[in-house]
Amino acid sequence: MKTTNTIPKTARRAISAALGLLFALCAGASGAMDLVAAYQQALHNDPTSLAANEALAAGHEKAVQGDALLRPQVALQTKLSRIHDHSTGEAPAAFAAVMPKDSTGTARQATLQVVQPLYDRAAGASKRQLHEQSTLAATQFEQARQDLVLRVAQAYFGVVVAEEALRVVRSEQAAVQQQHDRAKARFDIGHGKITDVQEARARLDGVEAREVSAKSTFELRQAQFRETIGADPARLATLAPSFAPRLPEPNQLRAWQAKGEEQNSLVKTRRSELEVAGAEIDKHRLAGRPTLDLVGSYSARGQSGSLSPLVAPNGERTAMVGLQLNIPLYAGGGLDSREREAGAKKRQAEQELAAARRDVRLQVQDGFLAVTTGVWRIAALKQALVSARSALEATTLGRDVGTRTELDVLDAQQRMFAAELDLIQARVDYLLGRLRLAAAAGELSEDSLRTLGAWLAS
After folding, report:
1. What are 314-372's pLDDT values in tens digits?
2. What φ, ψ does residue 241 adopt, rounded to 5°?
3. Measured at the alpha carbon of residue 290, what is the angle toward residues 77 and 126, in degrees to the nearest 5?
4. What is the 3-state secondary structure of the chain?
5. Nearest 5°: CA angle at 379, between 373 and 385?
């Protein structure tokens, strides 16, 4: 059963705005905003997403237009004329009553015509092409949705990483400040060296410069989030402390590549474009075929005034039903040229489809390796962070007993904080890699974001 959307456009916009506000209120009431809440809010605020909605609505109309090509065409024509008839000759006496020398009046005519195509192969090809264009619009809408998922995730994790980087830099700044104060205090009482104070001061200046840069990056990522999502990133769910990455399922690159070649939205787009190009060839090849239409018409003619019935009949009714055959004979070579052009464009579409499959295989491999290597990378960096913390403790103890210097402690601190940042970035790269793999395989959706919730703090 076909239903008709009777909700006015202004009402739909009001509903969308209310839903966006509802998502924002729910996120604020429940605590931190997770990826799904950010995505749902972006659906109602991101201009690119809203434009994709309108593009999909426009694409649906292509199918309607295609169906209309083979349906009856009904037209009503009316004509109203003011006529003054003057005859310079003399009519025979027998016709003087119906052919006055001077007459004036108003002539009226109305014609209702119905044309039903019976045989029109070109219109059938055009209908198929328009339906393929409607399918193409749906595929492009799916691609826009997947792009939005990736953009939301990148904006979300961009804020998370920038915030964590700022936190780590400030922690390092506090630690270096403590080392500087300690070195200065030892120097003041004559137990330290001025070089230790200068080295700590130089290291502190460098950390302060990085803190300014990290703060600027954090503000920029917040602005990008705000522009994409349409809300302030006040409280975002951060990475869970118990972050346990998993290998992709199935853990076979070829299986994921097969999915991508079949389901990826870029491949589906190129496949639809190939179908559209094929229908274009049929449309021009069949344009030279005869067409047969069933034509019916009903006309009424009348007048007011003294016009002769020979000039404007009064009260005449005419009904007609017939067949109309149209046989194109010669179009100046234009049809053949357009068919050759369409053939070249189809071959172009075939190569673009092959290129899309190649690109998808590479995108799948990129996402697959990001996930698989990300698992081992995270494990290695977790161990590296543990080792860096142990090394800092040992170096600090060595400094206290006189076997290590203040510079050794500062270097150990820097390595520990760098390892912490590397681990945070590796975890985010792993999550984004999962999304890129799902996108390349044509499986990316809102559920993909919901799956990532297992690696975010509740």
Report:
1. 778 899 999 999 998 888 888 889 899 999 999 999 999 999 999 999 999 999 999 99
2. -60, -40
3. 75
4. CCCCCCCCHHHHHHHHHHHHHHHHHHHHHHCCECHHHHHHHHHCCCHHHHHHHHHHHHHHHHHHHHHHCCCCEEEEEEEEEEEEEECCCCCCHHHCCCCCCEEEEEEEEEEEEEEEEEECHHHHHHHHHHHHHHHHHHHHHHHHHHHHHHHHHHHHHHHHHHHHHHHHHHHHHHHHHHHHHHHHHHHHCCCCCHHHHHHHHHHHHHHHHHHHHHHHHHHHHHHHHHHHHCCCCCCECCECCCCCCCCCCCCCHHHHHHHHHHHCHHHHHHHHHHHHHHHHHHHHHHHHCCEEEEEEEEEEEEEEECCCCCCCCCCEEEEEEEEEEECCCCCCCHHHHHHHHHHHHHHHHHHHHHHHHHHHHHHHHHHHHHHHHHHHHHHHHHHHHHHHHHHHHHHHHHHHHCCCCHHHHHHHHHHHHHHHHHHHHHHHHHHHHHHHHHHHCCCCCHHHHHHHHHHECC
5. 130
Backbone φ, ψ for residue 410 (5° rounding): -60, -40
Query: Angle at Cα 73 formed by Cα 72 and Cα 75, nearest 5°?
Result: 140
Contact 108, 80 (CB under 8 A): yes
Single-letter amino acid, residue 204? L
Nearest Cα neighbor of 412 from 203, 184, 241, 170 is 203
Residues 46 and 53: their CA atoms lie apart, in Å, by 11
**pLDDT band of 403, cuts 50, 70, 90:** confident
Q: What is the pTM of this model?
A: 0.79
Asked whether 284 and 313 are in contact (CB, 8 A), the reply is no
Separation CA 153–CA 433 (nearest Å): 11
Q: Residue 301 has which token pair?
A: 């003619």
Which tokens sit at 115? 């044309």
Burial of 375: CB neighbours in 10 Å, binned 0-12, 13-18, 19+: middle
Residue 439, CB half-sphere, CA atoms under 13 Å: how many? 24
State the Cα–Cα distance between residues 240 and 323, nearest whole angstrom. 75
Residue 431 has pLDDT above 50, yes or no: yes
